[in-house]
Structures are given as C-alpha cells and as structure tokens.
Design brief:
Elements (H helix, E strand, L loop, with lengths): L1 H24 L4 E5 L4 H16 L3 E5 L5 H9 L5 E5 H8 L10 H16 L1 E10 L2 E6 H6 L16 E4 L10 H8 L5 E4 L5 H6 L5 E5 L4 H4 L2 E3 L11 E7 L6 H7 L8 H12 L5 H11 L6
Helix pairs in contact: 2-12, 4-5
Length: 299
C-alpha cells in the first residue's frame, strides 16, 4: 500500500511539474503589459499584446497605469512583465545620470542599457525604431522667410522670442538648462503649460517657438516645422521595450518581442498617433492594422 501511495505521489508531483512547465511555455501564461497614460503608449501596449497573443500567449494590458516611475516600480515588483519606456526618461529619472554636453543618442542608449542591467536587474529587450523627442518647432512660413532649418540659426532671433513648453522642461536637468548650454543663447521668456496646450499656444500667437514632439502630427496640422537639433541640445527619447532580467530568460517570449525591433519609425508612430487623436480610432485596432501591414500577425 505504501509503495502504491508513494508511486501515486510521484505521479501527481510529476503532473504538477508538467503543468507548471506548460504555464511557462504555452497559452496559459498571462503576460501583463503596462502603459503610460497617452496615445502612443496605448497603441504600443496593444501592439505587444496582439503580437504575443498571435504566438499563443494570454495577455493583459494595463492602460494608463502611470508615468515612467510607476510602471518601472510595477515591473520590478512583478505586477507587470513588460512595458515600453524611453531612454531619456530612464537616463534622467530612473538612473539619474549626469547631463552630457552633447546628447548623443547612442551614448545615452548605451548608458541606459548598462545601467538598467547592472544596477536594477532590468533588461532592454529591443529598440522599436522611433524617438519621441522634444522638437523645437516654429511656424513654417516664419522659418522659410528667414531660411531657417537648424536650431542654432535661432540665435539672433531668440532674445525677442517666447518659448512655449511643458511644466517640467524649464528646470529639468535634461531640459532647458542643458539646451541653453549647448546652444549658447536664451529666449526672451518661457511659458510653461500642459503639453497638450503648446500647439494651441503657438497657433494663437501666444508664444513664438515651442518644444513639440517628434511623434506628434499636430505640428503638421498647425503648419509648423521642426528645426534640426544640430548641436545635440535635446535629450533623445528612443522607445525601448524593457522587462526584468529573470523574465528575459524566457527566450520564446523575448523572440516574439524582438519582432518589433526597428519596425516603427517616427513617421509611422506619428501616423498612428494621428489616427488615435484626430480620427478617434481605437488603439487596439490601430495596432492590429500596423502589425498586419508589417506581416507580423495574420489578418
């Protein structure tokens, strides 16, 4: 009898271990994806979800969980498994690394990848291909009349110009202080406001120049032109997928996520944001259409 019970116990234990293995490898594994509370984050969260579901995984998207730090802490606590962040935010807000005289995107990425891995136990899975950078933007006609294409060319006009920007940029270590050091000039005045209002402000001539965003199509709607950051005065925000080092050991999941490597350029992301903001399409539908167009999931 004891031998039968022992053998039965081994059989049950074997079944439990096998079941646990299935949860790690098959469709019963639920992967939780965190997002920040705005357009492209919703789209990217669902893009990751759809890609994983196509590979047989169950997913949950936590929309608008919070900003970089909230998602980051949730990741470290195991409340989410994956989220899309930005190198500039990790460099400045998470790792608190010193400002560079020139914001070389490759240097920033390298420092972030190394710092997250060595100090935080976080793995950068891949770059998505686009940057959600600040973008110094002015009215197109104004720039064309003066033949301006680069930020450095604003120097003779800056003393009479008012800059419109978000609330954090004027004092953030990676913001206006670094910009002024890189370019050697200051604007006449700076008006801080919610990010969603900067485009309206320049359209209504309340400011002369703004820090727009490279993946925001509203610049085109208001006929603005983005000036080239020719002296590297703007911190780069490369979009990256991150996870914990322990979760990254699941090679099957990581291979699915890596399918997005370099797939989304600035224009593609801006177009998707436009569909969400202006055309009022659902984020999941936008994500699905993009993945199908790239041949990454079945129609």
């Amino acid at each position: 009898m004891k031998n039968k019970l022992f053998l039965s116990g081994i059989l049950i234990l074997g079944l439990i271990i096998a079941a646990a293995g299935c949860i790690g490898q098959g469709t019963e594994k639920t992967i939780v994806i965190g997002t920040m509370p705005y357009n492209e984050e919703y789209i990217l969260g669902h893009m990751i979800s759809l890609l994983l579901e196509d590979a047989g995984y169950k997913t949950e998207v936590k929309e608008g969980l919070g900003g970089t730090l909230i998602n980051y802490e949730a990741l470290k606590r195991g409340q989410i498994n994956v989220f899309v962040g930005y190198t500039g935010a990790f460099y400045n807000t998470v790792l608190k690394l010193p400002a560079l005289d020139n914001w070389d995107p490759n240097v920033v990425y390298s420092e972030v990848e190394k710092g997250l891995r060595d100090q935080e136990g976080i793995t950068v899975v891949t770059k998505l291909g686009f940057k959600n950078n600040y973008a110094i933007s002015v009215p197109r006609t104004w720039a064309e009349e003066r033949n301006l294409t680069k930020v450095s060319e604003l120097e003779p006009y800056a003393p009479s110009m008012v800059l419109g920007t978000d609330i954090e940029y004027p004092t953030a270590p990676d913001g206006l202080p670094t910009f002024e050091k890189a370019y050697g000039f200051k604007f006449k005045d700076v008006k801080s406001m919610e990010p969603t209002l900067v485009y309206e402000a320049i359209n209504n001539k309340l400011v002369d120049v703004i820090t727009g965003y490279t993946t925001d199509k509203r610049g085109e709607l208001f006929d603005l032109v983005v000036l080239e950051d020719d002296k590297g005065g703007l911190l780069p925000y490369d979009a990256i997928i991150i996870t914990t080092t322990s979760f990254a050991k699941d090679e099957a999941v990581i291979s699915v996520l890596k399918k997005l490597e370099g797939r989304i350029d600035d224009k593609a992301m801006a177009d998707m944001n436009y569909q969400y903001d202006i055309e009022k399409k659902e984020s999941r539908d936008i994500a699905r259409a993009f993945l199908i167009s790239q041949g990454l999931i079945k129609n």
